[in-house]
Amino acid sequence: MTTAACSSFAGLASVRFLLGATEATISPGFVAVTGMWWTRQEQAGRSALWVSFLGVGSFIGTLLAYGIGHITGSLSPWKYIFLILGAMTVVWGVVFTLFVPDSPANVTWLTEQERVVAVQRVAANNTGTGRSRTFVMAQVVEAATDPAIIILGLISFVNAIASGGLAFGSLIIQGFGFSPLQTTLMNLPLSTVQVVTQLGAGFLTSKISSSRLHVGTVAMIPPIIGTLLINQLHLDNKWGRLVGVWLLGSYPVGFMVILGLLSTNIAGGTKRSVASGWVFVCYCIGQIAGPQFFKSKEAPAYHNGIVAMLCGFILNLVLNQILRFIYVLENKKRDKLLEGKSEEEIAEMQREGEVLGFEDATDKTN
Fold first, then answer.
1. Fewer CB atoms near the end CB (10 Å): N or C, the chain?
2. Do residues 73 and 227 lie in contact, with contact meaning Cβ atoms separated by under 8 Å?
3. Can you tell me the mean pLDDT for 38-57?
């Protein structure tokens, strides 16, 4: 809300820094909550649901911005946007803090027996309840040397380059010849594509076993086609290039897949925290890097910026398959440990895994 009071670059930069610092906790927090409340099979759909609301928020925000843009008050329209949406965010933040519990064990609206069941149903995840507050240096080293975690960060980085580039999405659309208010409305289909693809991806990954990275790979194909349309079609073909912009809407599925893998494939309180921190730092760096490829002298085509986005989508696709290969090798090693074991022995190993999960063991040691 204080952004509306800024009248200089220094003030705006300071407020935006604080805004970024507070926003940085949202996605890691949601990842932690998802891992605490739902089983591995359920987490993909749940993650897709809350990630899809980025598109829902963008859709509703676009309509609000269009309406607010017609306000003729004493303030500039953009200031009303920050004041109104900022106030809504503050109110919802208070509601969330007061009513969302930090663990199934602390839910006030469940009976004691129901709380026990809520904890036991996620025990098979072998990742505990996420309540460990002990810092373990060995888990930091394990996270820093885990190839899968390193690649998760790289995927986050290349995905964010495109996200940072889309900060110029309105300028790209406006460059097609639309007015500012028309440009606002032209963002609606992009938001719709985001919501539909994220929910669709969540449905597929929850129904088809071991499909998340394949789904994330397929989701990069429309943005690749979209960037090619934007870059290769003639500047006068504004509708064809606009369709290219709308096709970019499936790219957030790649980040949704990363969030799901963070909550299901990484165990150990410290290790998961380090992995989440690494992934989101890479994401922030990518968001900083993305806009740097968009030079004002290249307006309205922004050739280098569009090419940078294209490279990000292609690298995302390739890294998804490299990561899947690593997971396949790891699963084969685990399957080999079960060879020759009786059903009773396998069941006992599962029980031991659940206990180790609650004792803050990592995915490598459990």
1. N
2. no
3. 81
- Under 8 Å between Cβ of 268 and 362: yes
Residue 363 lies in a domain: no
Within-domain flag for 288 = yes
Q: How many domains does the chain have?
A: 1
| Per-residue confidence (pLDDT) for residue 353, from 0 to 100 | 59
Q: Residue 247 sits in which domain range?
A: 2-333+344-358
Residues 252, 135 contacting (CB under 8 angstroms): no
pTM given for the model: 0.79
> In angstroms, how far is CA 358 from the centroid of its own chain?
26
pLDDT digits (tens, 9 = 90+) for 287-307: 889 888 988 888 878 889 899
Is residue 55 assigned to a domain? Answer: yes
- Tokens representing 198 are 């994220």
Q: What percent of the chain has pLDDT over 70?
A: 90
Residue at 295 is within a domain: yes
User: CATH number, domain at 273?
Assistant: 1.20.1250.20
